[in-house]
Amino acid sequence: MLRRIVLLGLMISSLCLAPSAQAQGPEVQHSDPQWRVSYWNNMTLSGEPVLEETVDHLGGDWGYGSPHPNVDADHFSARWSRFVYLEQDTYFFTITSDDGIRLYIDNRLRMDDWNDHSRRTLTSKVDLGAGHHQIVVEYYENAGIAAAGLYWEPTGGSDTHWQGLYYDNPWLNGPPRVQRADIYLDFDWGYGSPATMIPNDGFSARWGRLVHFDGGRYRFTATSDDGVRVYVDQRLIIDEWHDHPPRTYVKEVDLLPGDHRLMVEYYENGGVAVASLSWAPVPRSSMWQGEYYNNAWLGGSPGFERADAAIDFDWGYGSPEARIPSDGFSARWTRTVPFESGMYRFMTSTDDGVRLWVADHLLIDSWKDQVATLHSDPIYLEGETPIKMQYYENTGVAAARLTWTRVGDEPSPAGVIVVDDSDPCFVRGGLSTAWRAADGGYQGTLTWTRNNNRPRFNYNWARWYPDLQPGRYEVLVYIPEYHATTGNALYWVAHSDGYTLRRVNQAANGGRWVSLGSYRFRGTEEDYLSLADVTYEPYLSRDIAFDATKWVPR
């Protein structure tokens, strides 16, 4: 009997101790198979969510819509969370959004872009130990386009390969179907695709890599069919995110010695698929020889000399260098540039005087005190051409800039309709004294006005009326480099299916065509593009440009 009591006591004791012993062991954490997401119909993630669900991938490109019918198209917010097992490594985390976004890893804020902005991509390098890590992304949408995304990749301790991620859709959405290391980013898939799991049309890809550069200026060359974006250290240097045949885009960037993060995004819509990126140092012969003087008349020997990558200076109330005074100095830049045969328009903006010689011809002569003033003139060029610019600063602000563009650029393909602000099919209304004309723009001229924030009273507007055949066209607008400082130009496209509003950040797109999308048109006078000066930014705080528009058959 005593033995039974002892055994029973031991059994009860073991039962009581079992939960305690289990609690002393390590807590088991599992990877979440999906993201848990909550949505709010406000921008502050406050109150009760209107929807909670699990999703396979984080975010999306919702355009002017929302992630779910229960979620408003504007002024909503979302939070995604998930535990993920990661090996020990250094990871590049990349977020994309329009508008605000925040990234937390293990309750630590790693990336913070919590403000209104158009679509942009940011990258952060994070060292993580092996184990499960909690990843949380918070996002809000104010108005207009809505987009959010996150991806990460290990560096693997190597900078000799591209980390390639391939998607079976043209929006870089969801988990990649293929991940691989690519030695070169130089692909011509013809009418095929990168892998059997990727469709021949309607796919996208993203490549990332850390590259060591010696200090200096580098020329990046991207070729694609169709859209391509190139980032250097999170800076978007090439943005050609639209359908087009094989084209090459070039951008020069100044880099400090050291490692720099490169990222390329690409999509293929239909037809041939091509994607490549290369870079090379810009030889010193491609630099300006700058000579800076301690007087305003270029007299005597220069105070110092240097190679300048571009004539694009705004010294404010300072000077180019400590050896040069803030007022009463001058400078001379010389360089020989190769030009293809054609007409080119040269533009200077200086405070104060400027003289510009092109091919030994005095093209611009404004040698006088002046606030920052734009001057431009065209000239026909062919082959190696010497260029010389002289400048002086008297007092106050000091600034000197020089740019040029090819007049008319390349011939338009058959069927393309261009309506410029100088054409009779460009019609404007409103307060006539508020309209301004300036040099620059697509054909050397542009129309502009100051912005308005009162849509019901005295606003200025303009319309472009193309002469179209019935059918589908892509609509593009040309944003000039000058008098385009608004971040919220609101274009209305009138087409056969109604009206579509497109917002363009003119300040971020100077000197390029911007696509507003493709639409079906009637081929009547009811087809047009409209733009007003109402931007909802502080009154008279921005310039809004009205330049060329283009309709391309699709």
Summarize the entry for a quick read.
This protein is mainly β and 554 residues long. It has four domains: 30-153, Galactose-binding domain-like (Jelly Rolls); 158-282, Galactose-binding domain-like (Jelly Rolls), CATH 2.60.120; 286-404, Jelly Rolls (Sandwich), CATH 2.60.120; 417-553, Sandwich (Jelly Rolls), CATH 2.60.120.260. The protein contains one helix and 40 strands.
Question: How would you describe what is shown here?
Answer:
With 554 residues, this protein is mainly beta. The protein has 4 domains: 30-153, Galactose-binding domain-like (Jelly Rolls, Sandwich), CATH 2.60.120.260; 158-282, Jelly Rolls; 286-404, Jelly Rolls; 417-553, Galactose-binding domain-like (Jelly Rolls), CATH 2.60.120.260. The chain has 1 helix and 40 strands. The strands form 8 sheets. Strands 21, 22, 23, 24, 25, 26, 27 and 28 form an 8-stranded antiparallel β-sheet that branches. Strands 2-1-4-9-6-7 form a 6-stranded antiparallel β-sheet, with no helix packed on it. Strand 6 (101-105) and strand 7 (108-113) form a beta hairpin. The longest helix is centred in the N-terminal third of the chain and has 22 residues, at 2-23. The radius of gyration is 29 Å and the shape is globular. The N and C termini lie far apart (95 Å). The model is unreliable at 1-28 and 409-413 (pLDDT under 50).
